[in-house]
Amino acid sequence: MMKVIVDTNVPLVANGRADQASEDCVETCIDELMKITEGDVKLVLDDQRRIISEYRNKLNPVGFPGVGDAFLKWAEINWANPQQCDLVSITPVDDSETNFQEFPPDPALADFDQDDRKFIAVALAHAEKPPILQAVDSAWWSFRDALHQHGVTVDFICEDDILSTLNA
């Protein structure tokens, strides 16, 4: 079964909360989240719920949720279910919870967003090095080659939207 890590902007885009996302991108994000919640793709998370906590800061699993909010609710229910999710341990190097031993000590990644390092650490801690789904966060684009050199695959599921933002 295919496994993926989902960056927070994917469910945000699925909720329609990213102005730079095209309608095609919103649909793609919805489709990718549905593959996970329907059991076709396994979600990879950290075992201390750091990723889920980030989702919770930006999404709302109660009320009248969008698809991204429903994904968060699904993740909270299923995170410890090995049929639905793989959990990996990542090792913080300090109390900030943003620097991890698994994150590559590469000068080319020195400016990579501190809050997003957990996604990279989870990808590298997992035996299969699953891809990270990324929608419209163009900041990741400039790091794609350096990440790839360390065995991290970033699947830019809305590449046209990112390129149009960068070329604007």
Q: What is the strand and helix layout of this fold?
A:
Blueprint: E1 3-6, H1 9-14, H2 23-37, E2 42-46, H3 50-58, H4 67-78, E3 85-88, H5 117-125, E4 132-134, H6 144-149, E5 154-156, H7 159-166
Parallel strand pairs: 1-2, 1-4, 2-3, 4-5
Structure characterization notes:
The chain has 168 residues and is α/β, with parallel strands linked by helices. The chain has a single domain (3-160), classed as Rossmann fold. The protein contains 7 helices and 5 strands, in the order E-H-H-E-H-H-E-H-E-H-E-H. It has helices at 9-14, 23-37, 50-58, 67-78, 117-125, 144-149, 159-166; strands at residues 3-6, 42-46, 85-88, 132-134, 154-156. Strands 3-2-1-4-5 form a 5-stranded parallel beta sheet, with helices on both faces. The longest helix has 15 residues, at 23-37. The model has no long low-confidence stretch (mean pLDDT 94).
Query: What count of structural domains?
Result: 1
- The CATH topology label is Rossmann fold
The tally of beta strands, per DSSP, is 5
Cα gyration radius (Å): 15 Å
Just name the CATH architecture: 3-Layer(aba) Sandwich
Helix content: 25-40%
Return the CATH class. Answer: Alpha Beta
- Please report the number of helical segments: 7
Secondary structural class = alpha/beta
Q: Termini separation (Å)?
A: 38 Å
Determine the strand fraction and express it as a percent band: 5-15%
Major β-sheet annotation: 5 strands, parallel
Give the H and E element order.
EHHEHHEHEHEH
Overall 3D geometry? Answer: globular
Mean pLDDT, all residues: 94
